[in-house]
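Person: Please work through this fold.
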Amino acid sequence: MRFIFIAILIMSVKLLSQNSPIIIKDNMLWLGYYNTININPKWSVNSDFQFRAKNWYHANSQVLGRTGLSYKFNDKITATSGFAHFRFFINNESTRREWRPWQEILINDNLNNLKISHRFRLEQRFNEKVKNNEPVNEYQFNHRFRYRLDLRFPITKNEEKGKILYILIGNELMINAGKNITYNYFDQNRSYAGLNYELNKKISLQLQYIHIWQQLSSGNTFLMSEVIRFNLYHTIQS
């Protein structure tokens, strides 16, 4: 794994030394609903539905639906396999499609009151091609590897009502792979900080700030996004 990161860094430095990088800046708003249906102590169905806007809320960016079946091996390790569908807005009316099977391993641990999670996710991405600013029902395939480190620490707790406020920080690195990837083996990095408020065992609210640094397919063009994110987490016992 260390060798892969070093190789990607060398390729990126070489590319930037040959071409002056173009940096595009954007501000985004992400809204998400996350749902967990616990079938039994081992099995659950986890889904999320999101809307994302760019230029804050002035232009549509993405809508997505994602779901997966999870198996909990023990209190620390959970495996999930699922499927996602994305719509990326070419303009405010027209969209291109992405179909995305995915698999992940989630490892949870505690260090005193600090909650630590490691998420390793593999995605198979089928992205619709666009010609003359219109989708053409032809697809390009690549893999993407994702690693996320998430840290949560409780700062207040109501012992009687079970309400907990967490501060959270984390980082996620994404790497592309496949024959269609030429210049952007490094896809993006997301760093975030925020607050997570557990109203009870079923409902949580989350507010995040995310900084995204993304390398586009041309290689010398980078997208730097500042994101405000609101999430609602909902757990249902079957």
Observations:
- The chain has a mean pLDDT of 91.
- The chain has one domain: 23-237.
- The domain at 23-237 is CATH 2.40.160 (Porin).
